User: Which sequence fits this backbone?
């Protein structure tokens, strides 16, 4: 997971200007184990990404039960939490992402109209 | 009693000592072990510090590592803040004694999209606890979550779960909470944390502020219910368990000198009892401080430690002034036997004074404490409170076998024998200094108003400040009343003159007697002479007579020889018949 993220970071930093549609999206989903909420969130996220960001997104799933020390970095309290690492600014979306409208607002992807 | 002991140990709640001065005393051992405690109070009342000190003391004194989860301050801020109180937090973090975790949550960055829980917080806390084997946890201030997370229902449910989880985890936790309007905390955290609730308070009355602490609730344990003043200073937190002291102090029969021999004489020749409380009261300028300084000097000379609280003069001024009457305090200060604590009484509230006194005494461990003067406290405070405070000080000092000397300024208009602060009942020995105005002079008089447990003198002595200290003189009590000052000196001169006359009289009589003896001696000698010459005359005559008799006998014998009659022989022949 980690090396991927690092390399994509570098690539992306070069590939500004931030035209949202062309940017590569880095999304990180924090979960705790294979809880129903976690599974729902991941399924919802995949669906939304496929619909909105086809081909230009990467999803990292971090299980805090396995790597608890990673929670500190992104100030994770609530689970599941989706963090939009890129494009900047960082945004956080908490919950199982079942409210698609709000997820889109949260990700700044609100479909026009 | 002994039988009940093992049982009471079993029944007693296990407690984790906080190491915070005084706090463990009022709670009978500290915070409940393995349970969460709520510490609430307004802004700036010391919640964070309380929690932090709990962790630091735990890590350094009781070998219990701790986790500090801060929802407000960053780690760097925390380290900086507590370093001003003398704690090296960074070092403790490096040695894995304390783990800091700053939890930051920004509402604007967060979008809520369905079901969630706070498992992330749990995991973080759990990770922090496990990484250093923590026994103590502080959550400061968890209520910040309410501002960051929109869904209160989830939050409350999760908090309840968190506190339960903390209990099962077996850590002793402190949860801090901001004080709310009607509730103890703004978000009603007391609902969840119900084992022990401690309230901190920072009140300002009459422009002076006092910090107070109260144990609102402590399930399964006895605790002091009063409001206890506490202070935060360069050594951290300290709470004063003032009323935990009963009247059971052990008394001493030892006596210590007041530093003025004449005063000791008035007190059975031995001085004050060790551990007693002495009050010196009097109007302005009668020498209360001088008396106190004498006592301080005497104690230092005995090698005892003296803590001198001066509320009106700076230590330097006091030492200079005392030098003028021959009391040298500087050497004792340099030797570390004498310590001055100079503060204006108005600097802080009464409770704070008490706290400072308490702390200073505990730190310096003196044998003698001097408070000079006590009634400056009255400014801006209620006499009743002053009395309570002094009572606490007296109790505290007595409990530590410290001899205390208070000075009190009484105003001239009032009755001399009622001290302004009405603490006479607390006092063991009360020396009253008073002005005696006579013949256009103002002189100082002193007497022992009371002295418990000794047959003290009832005499008024004149109190004189000389360049070698205080002197007490017998006041002249004559037909005109008590004479002091020049009147006494005049009287003394008169007496001296009389004495001289008497002395001269005696001398004259003695000389007369001597003369008579001499005359008589001469007469005796003359008579002796007469007698001697008469005697020798008589002896001479006796000798002559004897010679004559001898010659007559000789003649008789010679005559008899010549007549051939044996006078001598006749007599024996007669005897033979």
Assistant:
């Amino acid at each position: 997971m980690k090396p991927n993220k690092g390399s994509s970071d570098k690539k992306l930093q070069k590939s500004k200007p931030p035209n949202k549609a062309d940017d590569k999206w880095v999304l990180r989903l924090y979960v705790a184990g294979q809880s129903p909420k976690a599974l729902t969130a991941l399924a919802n996220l995949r669906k939304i990404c496929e619909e909105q960001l086809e081909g230009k997104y990467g999803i990292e799933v971090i299980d805090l039960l396995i790597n608890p020390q990673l929670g500190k970095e992104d100030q994770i309290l609530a689970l599941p939490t989706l963090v939009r690492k890129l494009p900047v600014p960082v945004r956080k979306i908490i919950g199982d992402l079942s409210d698609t409208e709000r997820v889109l607002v949260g990700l700044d992807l609100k479909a026009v109209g | 009693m002994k039988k009940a002991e093992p049982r009471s140990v079993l029944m007693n709640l296990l407690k984790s000592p906080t190491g915070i001065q005084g706090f463990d005393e009022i709670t009978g051992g500290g915070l409940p072990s393995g349970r969460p405690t709520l510490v609430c109070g307004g802004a700036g009342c010391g919640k964070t510090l309380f929690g932090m000190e709990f962790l630091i003391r735990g890590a350094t004194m009781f070998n219990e590592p701790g986790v500090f989860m801060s929802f407000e301050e960053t780690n760097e801020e925390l380290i900086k803040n507590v370093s001003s109180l003398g704690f090296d937090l960074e070092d403790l973090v490096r040695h894995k004694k304390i783990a800091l975790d700053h939890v930051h949550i920004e509402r604007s960055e967060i979008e809520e999209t369905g079901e969630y829980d706070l498992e992330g917080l749990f995991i973080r806390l759990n990770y922090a606890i496990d990484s250093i084997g923590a026994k103590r946890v502080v959550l400061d201030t968890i209520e910040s979550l309410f501002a960051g997370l929109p869904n209160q229902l989830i939050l409350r449910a999760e908090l309840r779960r968190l506190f339960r989880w903390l209990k099962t985890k077996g850590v002793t936790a402190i949860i801090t909470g901001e004080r709310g309007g009607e509730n103890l905390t703004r978000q009603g955290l007391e609902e969840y944390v119900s084992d022990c609730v401690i309230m901190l308070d920072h009140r300002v009355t009459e422009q002076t502020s006092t910090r107070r602490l109260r144990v609102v609730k402590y399930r399964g344990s006895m605790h002091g219910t009063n409001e206890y003043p506490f202070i935060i200073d360069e050594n951290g937190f300290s709470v004063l368990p003032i009323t935990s002291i009963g009247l059971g102090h052990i008394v001493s029969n030892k006596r210590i000198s007041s530093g003025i021999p004449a005063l000791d004489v008035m007190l059975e020749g031995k001085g004050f009892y060790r551990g007693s409380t002495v009050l010196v009261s009097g109007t302005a300028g009668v020498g209360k401080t001088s008396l106190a300084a004498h006592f301080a000097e005497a104690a230092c000379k005995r090698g005892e430690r003296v803590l001198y609280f001066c509320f009106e003069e700076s230590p330097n001024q006091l030492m200079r002034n005392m030098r003028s009457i021959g009391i040298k305090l500087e050497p004792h200060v340099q030797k570390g036997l004498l310590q001055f604590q100079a503060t204006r009484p108005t600097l802080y509230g009464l409770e704070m004074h008490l706290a400072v006194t308490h702390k200073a005494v505990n730190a310096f461990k003196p044998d003698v404490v001097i408070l000079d003067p006590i009634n400056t406290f009255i400014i801006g405070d209620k006499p009743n409170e002053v009395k309570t405070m002094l009572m606490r000080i007296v109790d505290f000092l007595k409990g530590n076998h410290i001899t205390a000397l208070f000075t009190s300024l009484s105003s001239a208009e009032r009755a001399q024998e009622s001290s302004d602060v009405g603490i006479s009942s607390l006092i063991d020995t009360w020396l009253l200094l008073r002005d005696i105005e006579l013949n256009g002079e103002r002189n100082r008089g002193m007497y022992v108003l009371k002295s418990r447990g000794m047959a003290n003198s009832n005499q008024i002595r004149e109190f004189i400040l000389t360049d070698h200290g205080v002197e007490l003189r017998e006041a002249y009590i004559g037909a005109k009343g008590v004479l002091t000052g020049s009147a006494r000196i005049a009287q003394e001169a008169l007496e001296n003159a009389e004495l001289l006359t008497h002395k001269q009289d005696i001398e004259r009589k003695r000389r007369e007697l001597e003369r008579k003896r001499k005359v008589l001696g001469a007469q005796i000698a003359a008579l002796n002479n007469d007698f001697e010459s008469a005697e020798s005359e008589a002896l001479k005559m006796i000798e002559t007579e004897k010679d004559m008799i001898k010659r007559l006998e000789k003649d008789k014998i010679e005559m008899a020889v010549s007549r051939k009659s044996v006078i001598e022989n006749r007599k024996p022949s007669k005897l033979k018949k």
Residues 255-481 of chain B form a domain with the Rossmann fold fold (CATH 3.40.50.300).
